[in-house]
Amino acid sequence: MQLQEELKPDIICKLRAGKRFKMAHIANETCENVKFT
């Protein structure tokens, strides 16, 4: 069930990046799984 653990932060990071692309770099630090760069 590792997908659930990675899915949770993945969605949070995506939502954060989607709402504020400028803060994408901040979300990247919080979620290394997702890369916005």
From TrEMBL:
This is Uncharacterized protein. The lineage of its organism: Bacteria, Pseudomonadati, Pseudomonadota, Gammaproteobacteria, Alteromonadales.
